[in-house]
Amino acid sequence: MEGVPNVTRADALAAVRNPLAFIADRWTPSPRTVQRAALSALVMSVLIVVTGGAVRLTGSGLGCPTWPKCTEDSLTATSEMGFHGVIEFGNRMLTYVLCAAVGWAIIAARSQKPYRRGLTRLGWAQFWVVMSNAVLGGIVVLVGLNPYTVAAHFVATSALIAVATVMWQRTREGDAAPEPLVGGAVRQLVWCLVGASVLLILVGTVVTGAGPHAGDSTEVERMPLDWETVSKAHAVLAWIVVSLTFALWFVLKAVDAPKAPLHRTRELFVVLLCQGVVGYVQYFTDLPEILVGLHMLGSALMWIWVLRVVLSLRERPAAGEADAVPPAQEYFSTSPSIAGPR
User: How far is it, in rounded angstroms, from Cα 197 to Cα 154?
Assistant: First the structure.
């Protein structure tokens, strides 16, 4: 067995001044370790959506009636607060697990050799989104679950999922300049899909804000909108997203696009179909809590796969690989601007 190296006073001071640099000087994670660290942060960002939905669907939104403490006199939930206190406080504690996962991703990215500044910045971006969203979650409690703040809380979590997805993808790529795999017309179609998906998520928060699941067993302010009308608008947007996804898949097949965009688009189509089934069943069965929770999970997965479609439209080899790869060749189709380089 190897002995534990002695830590000098200089080492201790260096660790205090810059702990990340101290760790990076002494540890080099494998690429798989960095990928798993980024994936763990993404999984936790989705899990926090699910548990946040559980808080609302069980009426536990004010299980801890204040913030940052659970009550005026206790940092944690008390036995008198019962089930709702446990659910709300448990969700708060899960935020620390999320912070740990994001911290692990930052450390792994910072320690990778060679150092990748962009990857580390994506990790720090997640950290600051988590911190700001934790404060926003406290504001949600302090204002009595105002539906507009609840909607903002969910949108911020969607932003966290977006950054985590990009970081996970970047751990499996190099740092060379991105090379497009499809033409400009296809990329424009994909950005229309992204815009429609963002609208779908935003309108979904309005459906929540106007709907019956207020997040607390007492009377809570709702958005002054007709829930049925907003739900139908949400369904129309969902069909637009599905149609754009099918159109994208058809175009990619027509121009003989590379496998990655085709596979990601097909996977997104399956996710959308499953999400649509859950959405319609919950609508016609008076919104049972379990189906609403599944729909929230589906929303997070849909957003991840939309982003994966976007990220599949280009490739980023490592710097050395980029120099060795011959220039991309054009492949033929009815429209070169649609096909693009392959």
Answer: 15
Query: Tokens for 91?
Result: 């969700």
**Vertex 155, ends 219 and 141: CA angle to 5°?**
35
Those residues whose C-beta lies under 8 Å from the C-beta of residue 112, and which sit 6 or more positions away, are: 28, 29, 31, 34, 119
List the structure tokens of 287.
Answer: 């919104």
Structure tokens at 59: 């009426």
Q: What local confidence, expressed as pLDDT, does residue 29 receive?
A: 94
User: What local confidence, expressed as pLDDT, does residue 64 receive?
Assistant: 86
Please tell me the distance from the alpha carbon of residue 209 to that of residue 49, in angstroms, as a whole number.
16
Which residue positions in the chain have pLDDT lower than 50?
Answer: 1-4, 322, 324-339, 341-342
- Count Cβ atoms below 10 Å from residue 321 Cβ, excluding itself: 12
CA distances 307 to 70, 148, 233, 242, Å, are 36, 25, 23, 15
Q: Which two tokens stand for residue 151?
A: 């909607």
| Token code pair at residue 256 | 């003989």
Helix (H) or strand (E) holding 248: helix 227-254
| pTM exceeds 0.85, yes or no | yes
